[in-house]
Amino acid sequence: MRVLLKLATLFVIVVAALMWNTVVLAEGPDPNGADTFAANPNAGLNMAWTLIAGFLVFFMQAGFALLGAGLVRAKNTVNYLTKSFLDFCMTGLSFWAFGYAFMFGGSKLFSGLDIGNAFIGFSGFFLASDAYDVNTVMLWFFQMVFAATAATIVAGMVAERMKITAYLAYSFLIGAIIYPIYGHWVWGGGWLGTLPFGSGARDFAGSGVVHTIGGTVGLMGAWLVGPRIGKFKRDGTPNQIKGHNLVYIVSGTFILFFGWFGFNPGSTLAATDLRISVIAVNTFLAGATGAVVAIYLSMMRTGKADIIAACNGSLAGLVAITAPCAYVAPWAAVVIGAIAPLVQQAAQAFVERRLKIDDVVGAFGVHAGAGLWGLLAIGIFADGTYGDVAGLIKGEGGQIVAQLISMVTVLAWGLGTGFILFGILKKTMGLRAPREEELHGLDIPEHGIEAYPLPEKEPAGA
Amino acid sequence: MRVLLKLATLFVIVVAALMWNTVVLAEGPDPNGADTFAANPNAGLNMAWTLIAGFLVFFMQAGFALLGAGLVRAKNTVNYLTKSFLDFCMTGLSFWAFGYAFMFGGSKLFSGLDIGNAFIGFSGFFLASDAYDVNTVMLWFFQMVFAATAATIVAGMVAERMKITAYLAYSFLIGAIIYPIYGHWVWGGGWLGTLPFGSGARDFAGSGVVHTIGGTVGLMGAWLVGPRIGKFKRDGTPNQIKGHNLVYIVSGTFILFFGWFGFNPGSTLAATDLRISVIAVNTFLAGATGAVVAIYLSMMRTGKADIIAACNGSLAGLVAITAPCAYVAPWAAVVIGAIAPLVQQAAQAFVERRLKIDDVVGAFGVHAGAGLWGLLAIGIFADGTYGDVAGLIKGEGGQIVAQLISMVTVLAWGLGTGFILFGILKKTMGLRAPREEELHGLDIPEHGIEAYPLPEKEPAGA
Amino acid sequence: MRVLLKLATLFVIVVAALMWNTVVLAEGPDPNGADTFAANPNAGLNMAWTLIAGFLVFFMQAGFALLGAGLVRAKNTVNYLTKSFLDFCMTGLSFWAFGYAFMFGGSKLFSGLDIGNAFIGFSGFFLASDAYDVNTVMLWFFQMVFAATAATIVAGMVAERMKITAYLAYSFLIGAIIYPIYGHWVWGGGWLGTLPFGSGARDFAGSGVVHTIGGTVGLMGAWLVGPRIGKFKRDGTPNQIKGHNLVYIVSGTFILFFGWFGFNPGSTLAATDLRISVIAVNTFLAGATGAVVAIYLSMMRTGKADIIAACNGSLAGLVAITAPCAYVAPWAAVVIGAIAPLVQQAAQAFVERRLKIDDVVGAFGVHAGAGLWGLLAIGIFADGTYGDVAGLIKGEGGQIVAQLISMVTVLAWGLGTGFILFGILKKTMGLRAPREEELHGLDIPEHGIEAYPLPEKEPAGA
Fold first, then answer.
1. pLDDT tens, B59-98?
2. ipTM of the complex
3. Distance separating alpha carbons of residues A378 and A323, to the nearest angstrom
4. Least CB-CB distance to C127: which of B247, B305, B330?
5. In angstroms, how far apart are the furthest CA atoms of chain A?
6. Do A452 and C243 touch (CB under 8 A)?
7. pTM of the prediction?
8. Contacting partners of chain A (3+ CB pairs under 8 A)
9. How far is CA C460 from the centre of its chain?
10. B121, β-bridge pairs
11. CA nearest C41 in A: which residue?
12. Hey, are the CB atoms on A93 and C334 less than 8 Å from each other?
């Protein structure tokens, strides 16, 4: 807590100092967009498209909040909701101050993003000075909601036992450092996107950049904070701990699916790129197929139609299609979506049964497992109709090499930095709520209120 | 179950065979949209509009899920949610494989939709070959979310007693056959849209194609599966069986209302068609008026402000304006919306008290009753300002003839095919869950989990 | 009730009379938009942008419904939901019939809005005659959802004890009279927007027009209806009465945040105005900062991370940035958002502890407190990059004078008309539900159903 306050104070002082020197007086070449629009009459359409898509991605935060709220026990619901709400705020602010500059500095995509190298960028801090420009600001918005998505994936994995203070610190740091640096390598002009195999590593909308990063960092968090009391039996086999509200789970999944139509098609940053219709359809088909495969699998295995498996299968399909969505044909989206729940369930079982890590909502399987499958799928199914990316089905073997390199890299980066980040937090502020708090639920001790307060008797004076 | 698996296997084989021959190698004239955009600089705007509208329609699935979840009893909530989630997945896949080709084949609207006649289309299967084109794919997306809407209307009507396996089979078949064929008649170049009365049968956004089809097919499902245990007294008068969560009901209605702004204005498929503002406003006015009329009706009749009646009244107004939304003036939207809840309530009472069919959520009144009223309203209120469609208020009598023919047709087609479909399912896999399952609720026996699991004691080893 | 029915009948007769004379036969210059589009090829883009933004603002109604439903006790949830659902319907209809004409008549912005003066407008009633035009209708839609937002703010403030009939009457009248007249002064060509200081009073998206009006009118409602039984102890100090569902509160806040991306960027009414990216980013930054500041404040004060405070802090940041969103730089949005929860909490404490008014959901602090701060902030932080509006940081002192005048005016107008409106309703139909109804909850007596009905035993005949 005190560390955080000191950091916050320091942060405010730094911001203020930076501001008075450079921000109030400086602005980019086109802070109101008049020049940009005059130069490109399609700028309005593409900006509207990008922003609206970004709004939909933002709304996915509500989906994650509901999905996770349903999957945790009632006694920890307020804790989960608080994390889920605050993480996008923290990540948004750190991505504004630092992350965006680390990620897109040097990309030269828009004004104020000039300085950077193959490993990291160094301009665009605080959207100030040359970055106070309609295009630079637009790109920030779309990228920020992606960073916030990566951040909030972790909330469900460490739910029901991580302290809120540690989680807030984590949220700030993933948006400032971990997410942007890997993002720089793929999307910001860094070394992965420019690999000399195929078209370089491709990840259209972030199966790797967003989902695998979130899933791997969260795995380290879940490991270092330890499993919930009672998750594993003495012999190491897992107990199933049920959530408390299936309506929230399904509603959250619907909202996520809805938001994905911003996530994937919006990643063109342009509605003048008509491939958006194929991207939207691929997104739908993969998500729908994932759900159908998962529900029939569960019926075959247990005789029960497991709706939670269907939701996760659907999300796995969506995560898997996120990287290849622009590069493949609809039939391939169905195949990718059909395989996704298999990968997801295998990854989930591996984490729970082999690694004995307590990933409360099964996010590693959905986001990292299916995310890696999505990266690989580009190397197989890309059909050359878009962006000159072609995979094995077109007889091209170079792309899959680039994809494999990016898969190894994202795993190493996510697990490595996740370990360091949560390791430092564990040593300094501590990760774990006290045992009694966990047994009774974190809501009252950490937040002072339950998710479902019961009415009190009418107070005196009534 | 086994039948389904065999069907699924057969389906996969057919798909695979089709794919290896025609899909991997074949593509439409413009799979990435470069040519289309070069030919029409407004293509980006219109595609963005259509896709975003489609996203909103997709989100209506969440509205149906919440609305129905609130209207059923807690013990069947997981069952309802599973149906509501899986039906759009199943319908989406069957519409991809077959439905779209049956509906728009022969319409020649876009590449790959060439073959068909006045009764049915035969090209565009799997979005493959010539149909792998940005425009064809765009239209598919918008049409698919409509098909999925029709499908999910049924979930609420047969809730609380239909087996999940039968429901999944139904969902596949409505999207493959029932919905597309009637749709072909009205929107795909078929005989209803080209009737020699007025401008031919008109149904701008689907009061008939979507809502009346859903409501009539569902009525046959509800009839053939039989009423819930306890719905009707021995003397045949109905008992009121309350749902379990009013917050879900109202939230679901809000989401549906929101999604309707995609449903109706999006049906122009073009933002260059500025009538979209009138359509949006008509949509709002009819929905708002429906709610207001319903709430005052309930207050006059019972002294209580019945929020469920208001929600249904609002939805009835929205369904009713769906067909005429583009053809009428705002004042007419108010009139159409005011009459809609009267029609809806009369239809609902007729189903429950005369037909003694147990339509759990009252969807027949909302979707079929108000849907038919919407078809008729075009013949009365169309004012000639758009699409050259004019009704009685302009002294034109031809349009209402076309509308009446389409009303009779949609009733006959929906009830007829619904009867055949659910009749076959009843004879083969069976429609009804066992009596004990129904009494205790379907959630545990069919899905293995309740909607609101209670916390277990801390497991041994804690 | 009877008064309402008479009013309604009168209303219908007036409408009908007006209609048969002027509406059926008359239409504006361009009811289908063909001429408008021919004259301005960007009209489609800007209309799509405005409508989609309006859809998002409409969806905020669902956010208010959920937020308030969570903040009231379970026993009054149906009552709150009914108000929250019906108010936008009533306001929408009264804004259609009267409000829009009072607000934009004389603005000459579009066809049919010609007649009016600096105090009030007088044309555009019923969107009829010359106002039946695509542009006039588009503007109506966007403005109507704003009016409905102002209306629904009040629902939470008077919750748990105001009669539904009185509330419905209020909803009609705020949309017909109170909201539009102040709106006319600022946005409709009235005297505030044309003040000879700075650029005249500015309120880009309605911190004052929408939020402060809602908050001040609601304060009078909450005062005149009196506090809930048990809210204040005999010595006048307040009791805390908890809501009943934190998941609804957080979900509602997420939806509101999402909808705000329509509210603020949409207020350009044009996507060709590329400032929309800066507006979206400012909106996000202020909302995120408000939440972060509020959560750390609560942790410092009580050691608990108060999620309700964070939600309100976030909303306060969003309300505060609503007026200045287009005129300030991102860094200023952070500062405005950081200060907003301080103003909001001070205003809330003042209302509860000094005025001893029972504002159930704390809406006065959020909407009026932060709203006034937003109006002021333009005078400080506007940086001259947009719309030629510059404040103190650019060395300009004129703007803040105009802002201060508008702040005094909105307070006087909102409190004054709110007092008159609720005073009249109190004298005529009465505001307060009977004491026994309030003690047992309004849901059964006013609505005949609880929010969470329990299953009955299987009825006889099962």
1. 999 999 999 999 999 999 999 999 999 999 999 999 999 9
2. 0.95
3. 7
4. B330
5. 81
6. no
7. 0.96
8. B, C
9. 49
10. B116
11. A41
12. yes
